[in-house]
Every structure is written in structure tokens, then in C-alpha cells.
Amino acid sequence: QGAGNFSAWDYLAALDRIIERAAAAGAYTLISLRRLDETTMFGTLPGEDGAPNYIAPQPGFDATEMWRRIGERYTDEPAALFDLYTSPHAALADDPNGLNSDWELWTLWARLAVGELRAAHPRALCFVSGLNWAAELSGFPLLGANGEPIPNLVYAAHLYPRRDDPWPTIRALARRHAVFVTEWGGGPTAAAWGERTALALRAEGMSWAAAHWNAEPNLVQTTARGIAPTPFGAVVRRALAL
To answer: How far apart are CA 24 and CA 183, in angstroms?
Structure first.
């Protein structure tokens, strides 16, 4: 469904244009499910500011139909990749919605989503995030009905300061399976942590995507001279140069 003054078809048309332009430039587009809607709160995030959390612990089963429809739409587009859900997590203490996520629930949903997507798009390259906001990957690989790891999956991790150390489970999983850091970011005081993380990513030979261009924590800022990198954006630019 759509939101505000934009219908679902408006969103799909915009997504078509983004994928087409990126493909023309030789780039992939990773289509990610991040929120179920723009208004439902799922508790407040821990910390002094108590910021509202709009990310559900995990999607409902109706989201699997969405992935089937997206698969049908892009089955002939090799530049489209699919991030099933970016940040599964346990319900926050003040979340009144009754949704939760643990490894059993999350892997059940992920298997269903992969199945629905690949029923329409058998070659779809799916990214599956870990629990604890994609910081914990110990419950992978994702197993199919035959008890064997589902092929052609990429396991996704997020790297931010002040979260549980994800490296032990990332390294253990990456020995046998593809792991990609789909979000790597930090605020203005995280530059030193960012430099250490950049060295670790390089040492592991691990691919990553930085966050975010137009959301907190930002990689760029507007100055009197135009757009310039934030302190963490400068870390990312140096890492890209290497």
C-alpha cells in the first residue's frame, strides 16, 4: 500500500527508476524492507533521549507476499538484490504491539520469505540480517527443509559503536558463508572507532556499505561551500580510497 499522497504504484515506479539508473551506471540496488509503515511505534529506544522506535521486531507473515510481488517485478533485472528485513530484534520493554523476535521466529519467517521470493524469482540473491539489530549472527546459516544451508544467501551485519561486539559471530560465519556489512556508521564522536573498524573490515576482506546519506548518523553535511563529509563520512571516504 502507499502512504500520504503517494500510491503503491507511485513507489514502485520510483523504485523502477532508481534501479534502472543504478544499473545503467554499473551498480546494484539492494531493495530493503526496513519499516512496516511510517507511523506505528514499537517502543522507545534505550538511552537518555528515549527516541521513538518505528522498526518492528520482525515483519508479519503478510510481508512474505510483498517479497513474492517484488520478485515477480524484478525477475529479469540482475541489478536488483533483496534485503529481506534490515533489523530484527527482541521487543523493547515498552513495546505494546505484542510482536517479538528470537532465532526460532526469525529463521522461520526468513525461510518463508526466501521461499516466496524465489518462487517468483529463482535466481534472487537474498540478504538475511542477524538478530539484535543485525549485530548477532550466531543462529546462521539458514537451513532449508532438508537440513542443509539454503544456497545463494548473503548474511547481513550492521556495525555501529556502543552495541554488542559482533565480530566473533561475523568471523565464525564468514569462514563458510558470504557475509556483507549492509550498514556501517557512527556519529561525530565515533571517528576513532570508525578507523579501527575500517582496518578490521580490510583485514577480513569483508565488503560493506556505509550509512547513511540522508538519515542519522549522516555521512554528509551541508556547509556554506556545499556538501561535505561529516567526521565519520571522512572515515568512510578514506576507507573507500584504500
So the answer is: 24
Condensed to tens digits (0 to 9), the pLDDT of residues 222-234 reads: 888 889 999 999 9
Residue-wise pLDDT tens digits, 19-74: 999 999 999 999 999 999 889 999 998 875 778 999 999 998 889 999 999 999 99
Helix (H) or strand (E) holding 220: strand 220-223
pTM: 0.93
HSE, side-chain direction, 13 A CA sphere, residue 79: 15
State how far the Cα of 65 lies from the Cα of 77, in Å rounded to an integer.
Answer: 19
Q: What is d(CA 163, CA 116) in angstroms, rounded to the nearest whole number?
A: 32
Residue identified by cell 546519506 is: 213
User: CA-CA distance, 68 to 165, in Å (whole number)?
Assistant: 34
Locate all alpha helices (DSSP H) within the chain, ordered by sequence: 8-24, 62-73, 103-120, 131-134, 167-174, 191-204, 231-241
Which among 128, 135, 215 has a CA at the least distance from the CA of 168? 135
